[in-house]
UniProtKB/TrEMBL annotation:
Keywords: NADP, Oxidoreductase. SMART domains: PKS_ER (SM00829). It comes from the Eukaryota. This is 2-alkenal reductase [NAD(P)(+)]. Belongs to the NADP-dependent oxidoreductase L4BD family. The keyword Transmembrane does not apply. Its EC number is 1.3.1.74. GO terms for molecular function: 2-alkenal reductase [NAD(P)H] activity. It comes from Microthlaspi erraticum. InterPro entries: ADH-like_C (IPR013149), ADH_N_2 (IPR041694), ER (IPR020843), GroES-like_sf (IPR011032), MDR_fam (IPR045010), NAD(P)-bd_dom_sf (IPR036291). One of its GO terms (biological process) is response to oxidative stress. Homodimer. Pfam families: ADH_N_2, ADH_zinc_N.
């Protein structure tokens, strides 16, 4: 059983050498009386929050993400096939998505964050992204936290990623004007030509983020879907409309810093009566089947599309995960461990 192990707690940007490989044996039969499930992992999801789990245990973030243990396999969202089950709700052959180890086979204890996959007329890998945790994040964050209305102006950062590309498409379905930022020309082209954003720009090429935002939002921003934090948040604050909303989904620009960058334009929150709300997707997992009912028809009709960045082989997992922090992924980053 090949595994990806955390060598030691990470400070600063993660490096490939922070993750090492191990080979163990695994019993593919569940012991009598055990309620565990043995799964074969097919697809692994690379998610930015995993960096937080690579750092030293921190009481501030523990409720969101428990630190990984050095010397043990890291874990994350996965699509897996049940090999053997002692759990009454699972039988051999079932496909599930939820947390599993970064390894070929995992022994899991199913919990409410494991979902049985019932719809297989769509790509199975979508359950790491569009139909999995990032899809639920976009859905809950946009519809529940942003409380959008038709005609409102929406800005999304890290807009071509696993979450952002969906937020933009949901905003268009809602009848909003939506602009996205991303870190390369290729990503900007995707935003405009594939995901239907009204406008998009490469934030790395803008000298002045305020000027860029003013260009696309002359009347201001009603909704900001925050994925990056730092300088972008500072610039957005100045461009918010009165009673605007900011859904704080993530702040990837800060995850590798011990001391986070300061945000300066905070008084604008008062004058503009801005509502800023952070959220964590797992709080919304009870709405997962409602989300599926909503999103599956759009996928089947081709009205929602999804771009994945697929890497083959567990051995290429560490570099794919680390690539997120350098913008290497184009779309949802996932790893194929096995196809069946
Ligand atoms: P992505 O697929 O968007 O991948 C990460 C992207 O972030 C990179 O491709 C890069 O895109 C961008 N990025 C990396 N470093 C920086 C930086 N320093 N400044 C600006 N952009 C940067 O990731 P996800 O869609 O999976 O996640 C997006 C955000 O949502 C993350 O912050 C994540 O932590 C958060 N999240 C929060 C959840 C919650 O429950 N609250 C659940 C899931 C995700 P580019 O080339 O455009 O710079």
């Amino acid at each position: 059983n090949k595994q990806v192990i955390l060598r030691d707690y990470v400070t600063g940007f993660p490096k490939e050498s922070d993750l090492i490989f191990n080979e163990t044996t695994v019993d593919l039969k569940v012991p009598a009386g055990s309620k565990t499930v043995v799964v074969k992992n097919l697809y692994l999801s690379c998610d930015p929050y995993m960096r937080i789990r690579m750092g030293k245990p921190d009481p501030g973030t523990a409720a969101l993400a428990q630190a990984f243990n050095p010397g043990e396999p890291i874990s994350g969202y996965a699509v897996s096939r049940v090999i053997d089950s002692g759990h009454p709700d699972y039988t051999k052959g079932d496909l599930i998505w939820g947390l599993a180890g970064w390894e070929e086979y995992s022994v899991i204890t199913p919990n409410p964050s494991h979902f049985k996959i019932q719809h297989t007329d769509v790509p199975l890998s979508y359950y790491t992204g569009l139909l999995g945790m990032p899809g639920m994040t976009a859905y809950a964050g946009f519809y529940e936290v942003c409380t959008p209305k038709k005609g409102e102006t929406v800005f999304v950062s890290a807009a071509s990623g696993a979450v952002g590309q969906l937020v933009g498409q949901f905003a268009k379905i809602m009848g909003c004007y939506v602009v996205g930022s991303a870190g390369s020309k290729e990503k900007v082209d995707l935003l405009k030509n594939k995901f239907g954003f009204d406008e998009a720009f490469n934030y790395k090429e803008e000298q002045d983020l305020n000027a860029a935002l003013k260009r696309y939002f002359p009347e201001g921003i009603d909704i900001y879907f925050e994925n990056v934090g730092g300088k972008m948040l500072d610039a957005v604050l100045l461009q918010m409309k009165p009673h605007g909303r900011i859904a704080v989904c993530g702040m990837i620009s800060q995850y590798n810093f011990e001391d986070q960058e300061g945000v300066h334009n905070l008084t604008t929150i008062i004058y503009k009566r801005v509502r800023i709300q952070g959220f964590v997707v797992t709080d919304y997992f009870d709405k997962y089947y409602k989300f599926l009912d909503f999103v599956l028809p759009y996928i089947r009709e081709g009205k929602i599309t999804y771009v994945e960045d697929v890497v083959e082989g567990l051995e290429n997992g560490p570099s794919a995960l680390i690539g997120l922090f350098h913008g290497k992924n184009v779309g949802k980053q996932l790893i194929v461990v096995a196809r069946e």
